[in-house]
């Protein structure tokens, strides 16, 4: 959280923050794993095998970061369903950061970009800001950034940066988070 908050308060643009976070994700993997996965696994059955593998790997390896998660089933655009979902009951990362902009700019957008670009698998992440749950859907393309409803949500009241901004009278009337990096 310290690293993330430093990243968020350096006055960088949202896309710079997203790119830094994608670099962090890439660095977690051995060098040849990502291109090999994309080349060998992703093409099998239109990516379904890759989507199911990634859901399992995410549920197993990310509990330290997000808390309890389990694999579930998602409906694919072709009408079939596939066990390529991960349901995070109450995301610790979101709960600790307390800020919608941190969730969106350092987690949702970079993670979606990472799986698409580095592994060839589309991913939609649907955080719920009322109960801090999050549904991952591997194999589903995210909507564009101007139509994704999650990006239109107002700042969370518990976000300390909102209060800080009010005190500084910086954009005091800005309630939309995506454009206001800090909340
Ligand atoms: C978010 O969670 C709340 C509480 O569990 C629920 O009532 C609401 O329908 C959920 N929102 C979405 C978009 O799923």
TrEMBL record:
The chain crosses the membrane at residues 21-41. InterPro entries: D27-like, D27-like_C. The keyword Membrane applies. Keywords: Membrane, Transmembrane, Transmembrane helix. GO terms for molecular function: iron ion binding. Pfam families: D27-like_C. It comes from the Eukaryota. This is Beta-carotene isomerase D27-like C-terminal domain-containing protein.
